[in-house]
Design the sequence.
């Protein structure tokens, strides 16, 4: 067009090509700028890629998939483990390990232990062993 004496402004180009002026301006801007690949090395002799310098607050897809796989594996292993537990062990497991607010350990005292403690004949050590206090 320049050879024919025309100044190729967006309006003239859009009329000749049958597109909007905005499309002409957008294409001109894309052609004037140079694209940079984020996977390209930072320098010619560098192993570091440009993408490594971009920060993001969200987890990558790989991290999300990895976490889901670990959760699924853990869930399956715990389910297998629970099948081998007694009802009491399951209760302790739920209250102590899987609770957001674990309850303190409580140990049931048998009637014999209660009677022994009241009579002073025996007491329990910190390890839970019963010792005779009369000796």
Sequence:
């Amino acid at each position: 067009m320049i050879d024919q004496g025309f100044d190729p402004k967006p309006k003239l180009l859009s009329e000749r090509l049958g597109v909007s002026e905005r499309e002409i301006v957008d294409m001109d801007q894309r052609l004037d700028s140079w694209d940079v690949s984020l996977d390209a090395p930072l320098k010619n002799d560098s192993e570091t890629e440009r993408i490594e310098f971009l920060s993001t607050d969200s987890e990558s897809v790989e991290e999300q998939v990895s976490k889901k796989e670990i959760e699924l594996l853990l869930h399956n292993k715990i389910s297998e483990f629970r099948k081998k537990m007694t009802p009491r062990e399951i209760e302790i497991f739920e209250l102590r390990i899987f609770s957001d607010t674990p309850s303190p350990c409580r140990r049931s005292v048998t009637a014999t232990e209660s009677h022994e403690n009241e009579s002073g004949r025996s007491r329990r050590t910190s390890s839970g062993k019963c010792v005779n206090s009369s000796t």
